[in-house]
């Protein structure tokens, strides 16, 4: 019988109904993990669970609700009774000029991408402390290294997540915890569908469109090696680190690599692509496109 790295281990994945979270579930389940999958869409979670070879539990939760932390903790206690690792992959990506984005949508982005992660950590750290691996992996983004125009809400949320992870890592290290970030470039999921290569989201030709499986492999590696961060694709890491240290320097050459950059930014000023479509931002989109 094949022995997987995660045999006998329990992992919670938040944002697992599709995309990267689902790909992580597939990879870890194939390596023996018993999973609990969280997202809002229960049918999506059940569909994702059906494809997995290992034991899996699903629990519908909206990470923006104030009860999310206790709801996730209760679900883990009841279904697994213990936990080795938490992967936080829930996220939304609204794109709009700052002057045109509704404050409500900015807040929603922070709420899902940042506060949801805080809630998951607060709810699940006490249970993780009883497990063997004591690992937390948060999905960040290359947009923290390459801060694109019209990404202000998303970049803010992922920068906040970066600060949260950096401090949490120091805080929990004496208890043997690992806190890792995974920072991918554009990935072919519902999140970027219809957005990539529009004036609101321009990338250089050399930037590959990743598959969710490429990211799940990086999450697996960060977990196994207890690494602080992985850039996906790995060959972009030197430029990514330079981008974090000197964003203006790197964005200068990034702009140069995208033909018609200035024109696209001017065009983007009159558009918006909501991540979580509120009626008001829908009308902004219709009125300005
Ligand atoms: N795709 C990319 O290009 C890319 C690049 C870099 C980083 N990332 C990051 O990778 C992570 C996964 O993205 P993805 O591409 O897999 O996106 P996706 O396919 O749109 O999946 C997003 C997941 O988040 C869940 N979610 C959204 N709002 C939620 C809420 N309020 N409560 C609970 N769950 C919620 C969704 O489930 P429900 O709708 O069922 O709730 C879904 O399972 C995100 O953190 C994203 O920022 C993505």
Automatic annotation (TrEMBL):
A molecular function GO annotation: 2,3-dihydro-2,3-dihydroxybenzoate dehydrogenase activity
Keywords carried by this UniProt record: Oxidoreductase
Pfam families (UniProt xref): adh_short
Keyword Oxidoreductase set for record: yes
One GO CC term, this protein: membrane
GO BP: siderophore biosynthetic process
Family, per entry: Belongs to the short-chain dehydrogenases/reductases (SDR) family.
PANTHER family to which the protein is assigned, alphabetical: DEHYDROGENASE/REDUCTASE SDR FAMILY MEMBER 7B, DEHYDROGENASE_REDUCTASE SDR FAMILY MEMBER 7B
Protein name: Ketoreductase domain-containing protein
């Amino acid at each position: 019988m094949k022995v997987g790295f995660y045999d006998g281990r329990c992992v919670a994945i938040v944002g697992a109904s599709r995309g990267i979270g689902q790909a992580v579930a597939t990879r870890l389940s194939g390596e023996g993990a018993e999973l609990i999958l969280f997202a809002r869409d229960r049918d999506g979670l059940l569909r994702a669970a059906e494809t997995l070879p290992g034991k899996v539990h699903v629990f519908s939760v909206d990470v923006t609700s104030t009860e999310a932390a206790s709801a996730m903790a209760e679900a883990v206690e009841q279904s697994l009774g213990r936990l080795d690792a938490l992967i936080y992959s829930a996220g939304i990506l609204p794109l709009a000029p700052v002057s045109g984005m509704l404050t409500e949508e900015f807040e929603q982005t922070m709420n899902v991408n940042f506060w949801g992660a805080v809630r998951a950590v607060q709810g699940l750290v006490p249970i993780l402390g009883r497990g063997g691996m004591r690992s937390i992996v948060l999905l960040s983004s290359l947009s923290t290294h390459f801060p694109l125009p019209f990404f202000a809400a998303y970049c803010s949320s992922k920068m906040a997540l970066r600060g949260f992870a950096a401090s949490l890592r120091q805080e929990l290290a004496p208890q043997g915890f690992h806190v890792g970030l995974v920072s991918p470039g554009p990935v072919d999921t519902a999140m970027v569908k219809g957005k990539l290569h529009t004036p609101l989201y321009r990338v250089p030709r050399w930037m590959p469109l990743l598959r969710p499986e490429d990211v799940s492999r990086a999450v697996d590696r960060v977990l196994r090696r207890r690494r602080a961060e992985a850039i996906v694709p790995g060959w972009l890491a030197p430029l990514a680190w330079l981008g974090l240290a000197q964003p203006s320097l790197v964005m200068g050459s990034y702009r140069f690599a995208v033909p018609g950059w200035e024109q696209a930014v001017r065009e983007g000023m009159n558009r918006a692509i909501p991540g979580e479509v509120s009626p008001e931002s829908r009308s902004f989109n219709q009125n300005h496109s």
